Amino acid sequence: MNQGRIWCVVNPTVGLPLFLGAVALISFVVHFAVLNNTPWIGTFWGG
């Protein structure tokens, strides 16, 4: 792992939850934006 030295600066018990939380937040924002800006989603869900 060539980025292993980051754990000398940030403790893994803090860094990993922050990283995974950021990934989940970005995923939620992207999905929310796609669902709100795509006009055919409502028709698809409505049948």
What is shown here, in short?
With 47 residues, the chain is mainly alpha-helical. 70% of the residues lie in helices and 0% in strands.
Structure, described:
By secondary structure, the chain is an all-alpha fold. Helices cover 70% and strands 0% of the residues. The chain has 2 helices and no strands. The longest helix has 26 residues. It is rod-shaped, with a radius of gyration of 18 Å. The mean pLDDT is 88.
* Series of H and E elements: HH
Output the number of helix runs.
Answer: 2
Flag low-confidence runs: none
Overall form? rod-shaped
Percentage of β-strand residues: under 5%
Rounded to the nearest angstrom, the radius of gyration is 18 Å
Straight-line distance between termini: 48 Å
- The level of helicity is over 70%
Secondary-structure class: mainly alpha
Give a quick account of the main beta sheet: strands, pairing sense, barrel closure: none
Mean pLDDT: 88
Number of strands: 0
List the helices and strands and how they pair.
Elements: H1 12-37, H2 40-46
Descriptive key words:
mainly alpha, 47 residues, 70% helix, 2 helices
